[in-house]
């Protein structure tokens, strides 16, 4: 357990796969589905750049991490505990450990920026929809926070299906009751609640126990964000087709 640590801002880029290579290859295998979703989104009026970002942007940038902080830990270290009891010496030995805190572009930056755009464009204009979104965000974030687990040496892990189910249920309720835009509501809700519940609410626990490199929006959290995003696109596409 570290007795002291220092936090220093640091800016840099690191490339690493946030998921296993097999899962990453699996995502590439479903590229025809992504192309289909892209064409559907464009056909229902979504801007091509936004559609491309939602379908491929997060996946292609999921291996890029922006380093934002370097945390140095000073851990008391004494390999001669019994000897020191017999012959006390004023020598204090410390072991230095480090943690590099990163933000994943595909799993954090792109979803947050896209969510802000969707919320400001489609949700802010209606107070009832905005309040429904805020309440849904709080509920979903708390549930995900309680379900997330810190795995030493790996990071935060959570059931992949959980954010998807929460997002679909809460989006369906808001769509039926308040006629919320399903794309804006579901994508923003799934992305932000997963980031808040899995990463941000557990950041103190991560700093206390993790060493090496830890990416906000990376590792297992990326799976939840990306899959939830894909499900929101499918839901929005079906919704648009049905009402047309």
Q: What key attributes describe this structure?
A:
244 residues; alpha+beta; 4-stranded mixed β-sheet; two-stranded antiparallel ribbon; 10 helices; 19% strand; DUF1614 domain-containing protein; membrane; DUF1614; transmembrane; transmembrane helix
Structure notes:
With 244 residues, the chain is of the alpha+beta class. It has helices spanning 21-29, 31-43, 48-60, 81-86, 105-123, 127-147, 161-178, 182-199, 203-209, 219-243, and strands at 4-15, 64-76, 94-104, 149-151, 155-157, 212-216. A hairpin with a 3-residue loop joins strand 4 and strand 5. The longest helix is centred in the last third of the chain and has 25 residues, at 219-243. The radius of gyration is 22 Å and the shape is globular. The mean pLDDT is 80.
How many structural units, i.e. domains? 1
* Total beta strand runs: 6
Average residue-wise pLDDT: 80
Biggest β-sheet description: 4 strands, mixed
Apparent shape? globular
Number of helices: 10
Radius of gyration: 22 Å
DSSP helix fraction: 55-70%
Q: Hey, roughly how much beta strand do the residues contain?
A: 15-25%
Helix- and strand-based class?
A: alpha+beta
Q: Give, in spatial order, the strands making up the sheet with the most strands.
A: 1-2-3-6
Output the helix-strand order.
Answer: EHHHEHEHHEEHHHEH
Oligomer: single chain
Poorly predicted runs of 5 or more residues: none
C-alpha termini separation: 60 Å
Pfam family, one: DUF1614
Protein name: DUF1614 domain-containing protein
Transmembrane segments: 21-44, 50-75, 99-119, 125-145, 157-178, 213-239
InterPro entries: DUF1614 (IPR011672)
């Amino acid at each position: 357990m570290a007795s002291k640590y220092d936090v220093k801002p640091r800016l840099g880029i690191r490339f690493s796969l946030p998921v296993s290579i097999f899962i990453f290859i699996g995502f590439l295998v479903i590229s025809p589905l992504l192309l289909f979703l892209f064409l559907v989104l464009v056909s229902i009026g979504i801007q091509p750049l936004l559609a491309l970002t939602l379908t491929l942007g997060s996946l292609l940038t999921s291996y890029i991490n922006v380093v934002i902080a370097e945390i140095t830990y000073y851990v008391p270290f004494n390999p001669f505990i019994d000897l020191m009891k017999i012959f006390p010496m004023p020598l204090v030995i410390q072991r230095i450990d480090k943690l590099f805190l990163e933000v994943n572009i595909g799993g954090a930056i792109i979803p947050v920026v896209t969510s802000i755009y969707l919320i400001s464009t489609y949700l802010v204009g209606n107070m009832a929809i905005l309040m429904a979104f805020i309440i849904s965000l709080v509920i979903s974030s708390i549930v995900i926070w309680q379900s997330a687990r810190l795995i030493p040496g790996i990071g935060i892990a959570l059931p992949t299906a959980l954010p998807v189910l929460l997002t679909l249920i809460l989006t369906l309720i808001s769509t039926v009751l308040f006629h919320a835009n399903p794309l804006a509501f579901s994508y923003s809700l799934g992305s932000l609640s997963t980031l808040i519940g899995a990463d941000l609410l557990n950041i103190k626990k991560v700093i206390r126990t993790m060493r090496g490199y830890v990416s906000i929006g990376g590792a297992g959290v990326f799976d939840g964000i990306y899959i939830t995003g894909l499900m929101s696109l499918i839901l929005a596409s079906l919704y648009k087709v049905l009402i047309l």
